[in-house]
Design a protein that fits this description.
Among the domains are: 78 residues, no CATH class; 53 residues. The strands form 3 sheets. The protein has a 4-stranded antiparallel beta sheet, with no helix packed on it. It is built from 2 helices and 8 strands; from the N terminus they run E-E-E-E-E-E-H-E-E-H. Helices cover 16% and strands 12% of the residues. By secondary structure, it is of the alpha+beta class.
């Protein structure tokens, strides 16, 4: 039986008289719920279950020893469809569903799956793929794209973004960063650098130059000019002033005064309120010069003192040699008579002897 219902066995077309038709179930039990028309050789069974096997024993009337029989079997459903198919299949299923769909497809597949899902979707797609994946996701998106890629990645990310862009690029990078920013710019450059810095500033300018230098300074100023010149010099000073003029000359001299250099030097010697490294070097050199001059002056003074002492001793020896009564090393003392004794004193009157 393909479905629950009634079965009719008709042997009336046989060339001999039928005495009885006895039905049995698959276990050999005789079925009693039957309506037999023995004279016509017709037997109808009711309330049979689908997918069950039934057997029948047909006996001829008394005195019949041979003959040919013709038997036809007709089955009817207990709940026949109110809209039967106009084109029934020539290969009906041997195991039909007990809960058929109310809206069957008009174009069923010629190659149905051997392992249909036990939990089919309540909202199947109207455009199923002709090449379904062998490893479908267990957590499909609730909002699939209307324009899926024809060349999906073979190595999808294990941690996809929860907020994908609504306007993805048509030319994605082949070498994406492993550490993307959490705050990407809303206006990225169309010509990114090939050699980005490894230590980007946390406070980038909002108006970057369109013509950056190829040789940037390693010590940029902390207070850049608000009105930079459009024609910077190719030979900037090494000692810029810390107090530039608000009205610079349009025709500067080729030989600036020393004061400008001094201002620039002062700017290099100081860094804020303290000395710079260059300033400390100048101070150390100046201190060394002062120490060297002081030591030289002390040595020269000591040498001159020794020379003066030596000359004093020599003069004393000369006086002692020319003046009797003067001991070497003693200063001659003035006495009456010019230092002569009374015996040697010259007489006032008379000739000199």
């Amino acid at each position: 039986m393909p479905h629950d219902g009634a079965m009719t066995i008709d042997a009336s077309a046989s060339d001999f008289e039928i005495r009885s038709i006895t039905p049995f179930d698959s276990e050999g039990n005789q079925l009693m719920d039957a309506d037999a028309d023995e004279s016509a050789g017709v037997l109808t069974l009711f309330d049979l279950e689908h997918n069950e096997d039934y057997f029948f024993q047909v006996e001829g009337a008394d005195g019949i020893t041979k003959g040919e029989f013709y038997i036809s079997i007709a089955c009817s459903s207990d709940t026949p469809t109110s809209s039967p198919s106009k084109e029934p299949t020539s290969q009906p299923s041997s195991n039909p569903t007990t809960d058929p769909t109310e809206d069957p497809t008009a174009d069923p597949t010629a190659d149905p799956t051997r392992y249909p899902t036990a939990d089919p979707t309540a909202d199947p797609t109207r455009y199923p793929t002709v090449d379904p994946t062998t490893d479908p996701t267990r957590e499909p998106t609730a909002d699939p794209t209307a324009d899926p890629t024809s060349d999906p990645t073979a190595d999808p990310t294990a941690d996809p973004t929860r907020d994908p862009t609504a306007d993805p690029t048509t030319d994605p990078t082949r070498e994406p960063t492993a550490d993307p920013t959490s705050d990407p710019t809303a206006d990225p450059t169309a010509d990114p650098t090939c050699d980005p810095t490894a230590d980007p500033t946390t406070d980038p300018t909002r108006e970057p130059t369109a013509d950056p230098t190829a040789d940037p300074t390693s010590d940029p100023t902390m207070i850049p000019s608000a009105l930079p010149t459009t024609e910077p010099t190719t030979e900037p000073t090494a000692y810029p002033t810390s107090d530039p003029s608000s009205l610079p000359s349009s025709d500067p001299t080729a030989f600036p005064t020393q004061s400008v250099v001094s201002d620039g030097l002062a700017a290099r010697l100081t860094s804020g309120d303290s000395l710079s490294q260059f300033g400390w070097i100048i101070v150390a050199c100046a201190a060394g010069v002062v120490l060297l001059v002081s030591v030289s002056w002390l040595i020269l003074r000591h040498f001159r003192a020794k020379q003066a002492m030596k000359q004093s001793v020599q003069m004393g020896e000369m006086i002692a040699a020319t003046s009797p009564g003067v001991t070497p090393g003693m200063t001659p003392v003035a006495t009456p008579g010019g230092g002569q004794t009374e015996a040697a004193a010259m007489p006032i009157d008379g000739d000199v002897v």
